[in-house]
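ARCHIVE CARD
CATEGORY: sequence design from structure
SOURCE FIELD: tokenized fold
FIELD CONTENT:
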């Protein structure tokens, strides 16, 4: 992870501004939500150089006043100049939105903006303390929340009067992020007329990523809340509406159309469809702290005489072409010169320092600074990695096209890039789970439960894998499930295509 000193100041404050066309799209939506009554008193919690202030000036809907906050004093001064041109009272405060909005009680008719995308690690101590205070204020635990956009949005929404409207530009992690669950819960508790507009990459000339607009009205709602999704593609917006409940793990399945989401929900209640965690456990495997040094090929083993400490390793699932990691697969990988061994210097084995070849190899680790790396320097001795014994199944932590589970027939050790799987009932044939995992239902479950961090890569952590639905052998041919098959396949395809397109 990069430190603050290694990150540009623009990035540290999340200084990416909203293009005029997008700011106008937000105001159009707000005008619709206010149904012709004007925008009233507007709050812009992180105004940058004033993109939304200029848009308010140009837009036909009338605002009665604008209150803006911006942490960067230079940008706040530029925004102030835009504000001065407005024919209504407009106040720009240079300071953090958290402290400013926590400490003054104003109440607004409209919240608009594009909150700063700044990682928690880069926040000032004062902002960190205020994040906790925002959490208390809005009734959502925000301790060590992943990113600044969440508390800035929540503190701004908290200042919205009931009946007031909001429209904000947000990162797509609104739908999937673990920390963003605080915002999703707030919305299901306190908002109505919720709409999420999805603009694909390249929709706005200056914006290179996908854009998500969240809009709605603040109310006190009880019971299920509806969210309308509007996908803007090729000038032909498609839209659909789903109900959400506060306990939803994430909102990824809102991206499915009505029929697809109905199939996804119905499939999970078919008898014999269970959470994968009921059949098997997947856990993190060996963490070396320096895979490139601890995982070696035949040539390194021979050069340093490391045979005694070498154990067969599978570094990545992509080296397994089919569904079984057996000796033939491992031999082929080894013959290609792959790093097919992990060095196991555990206490029960010969002392490597008493062996001149192994001693030489350990010295390379010291020379390369491996011994000083975080994971290594906390061990004694630094090279004694606790090797996690192999399981009967393997699953990659990250995947591109689709996640896979394979049978670990050769008992290969893996590092933290490949999870170790164990069947809960060891008498079950591992191939049953391997086959069931490849179904559209389970692969759709992976797309819904997992997260994509860019590059089209899908990542699942063990708790997410455990929640993925899987059809037991008896259920896999149930007529109800077969009937849902086309909608499940199309749902899976939609989420995967979207993930790959987002890049
Ligand atoms: C994504 S930019 C958006 C700026 C403007 N709202 C727009 O749409 O063009 C986020 C802005 O938040 C500002 N910012 C960062 N941390 C802040 C904080 N704690 N309080 C208020 N503004 C902050 C940044 O300096 C940046 O100008």
């Amino acid at each position: 992870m990069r430190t603050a000193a290694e990150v540009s100041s623009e990035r540290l404050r999340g200084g990416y501004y909203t293009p005029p066309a997008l700011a106008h799209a937000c105001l159009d939506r707000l005008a619709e939500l206010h149904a012709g009554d004007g925008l009233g008193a507007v709050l812009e919690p992180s105004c940058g150089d004033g993109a939304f202030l200029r848009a308010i000036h140009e837009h036909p809907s009338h605002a009665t006043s604008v209150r803006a906050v911006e942490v960067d004093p230079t940008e706040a001064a530029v925004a102030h100049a835009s504000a001065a041109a407005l024919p209504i009272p407009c106040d720009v405060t240079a300071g953090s939105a958290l402290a400013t909005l926590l400490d003054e009680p104003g109440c607004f008719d409209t919240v608009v903006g594009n909150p700063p995308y700044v990682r928690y690690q880069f926040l000032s101590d004062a902002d960190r303390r205020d994040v906790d205070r925002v959490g208390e204020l809005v009734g959502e635990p925000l301790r060590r929340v992943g990113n600044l956009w969440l508390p800035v949005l929540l503190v701004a929404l908290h200042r919205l009067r009931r009946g007031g409207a909001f429209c904000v530009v947000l990162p797509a992690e609104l739908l999937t992020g673990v920390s963003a669950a605080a915002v999703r819960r707030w919305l299901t508790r306190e908002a109505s007329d919720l709409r999420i507009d999805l603009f694909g990459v390249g929709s706005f000339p200056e914006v290179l990523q996908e854009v998500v607009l969240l809009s709605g009205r603040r109310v006190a709602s009880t019971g299920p809340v509806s969210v309308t999704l509007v996908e803007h593609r090729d000038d032909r917006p498609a839209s659909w509406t789903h109900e959400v409940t506060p306990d939803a793990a994430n909102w990824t399945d809102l991206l499915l159309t009505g029929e697809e989401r109905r199939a996804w929900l119905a499939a999970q209640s078919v008898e014999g469809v269970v959470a994968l965690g009921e059949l098997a456990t997947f856990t993190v495997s060996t963490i070396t702290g320096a895979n490139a040094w601890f995982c070696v090929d035949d040539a390194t083993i021979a050069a340093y005489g490391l045979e005694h400490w070498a154990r067969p390793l599978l570094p990545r699932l992509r080296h397994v072409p089919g569904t079984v990691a057996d000796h033939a697969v491992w031999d082929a990988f080894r013959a290609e010169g792959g790093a097919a061994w992990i060095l196991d210097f555990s206490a029960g084995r010969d002392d490597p320092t008493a062996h001149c070849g192994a001693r030489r190899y350990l010295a390379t680790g010291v020379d390369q600074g491996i011994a000083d790396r975080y994971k290594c320097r906390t061990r004694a001795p630094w090279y004694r990695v606790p090797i996690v014994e192999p399981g009967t199944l393997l699953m990659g932590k990250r995947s591109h096209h689709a996640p896979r589970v394979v049978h670990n027939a050769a008992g290969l050790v893996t590092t933290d890039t490949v999870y170790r799987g164990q069947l809960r009932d060891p008498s079950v044939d591992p191939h049953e789970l391997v086959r069931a995992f490849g179904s559209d239902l389970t692969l759709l479950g992976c797309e819904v439960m997992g997260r994509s961090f860019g590059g089209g890569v899908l990542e699942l952590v063990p708790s997410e894998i455990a929640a993925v639905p899987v059809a037991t052998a008896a259920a896999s041919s149930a007529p109800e499930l077969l009937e849902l098959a086309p909608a499940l396949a199309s749902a899976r395809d939609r989420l995967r295509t979207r993930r790959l397109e987002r890049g």
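CARD ANNOTATION: Residues 13-18, 46-48, 51-52, 69-72, 75, 96-98, 113-114, 116, 118, 127, 148 surround S-adenosylmethionine (CB under 6 Å). The chain has two domains: 12-255, 282-502.
SHELF: design records, drawer C
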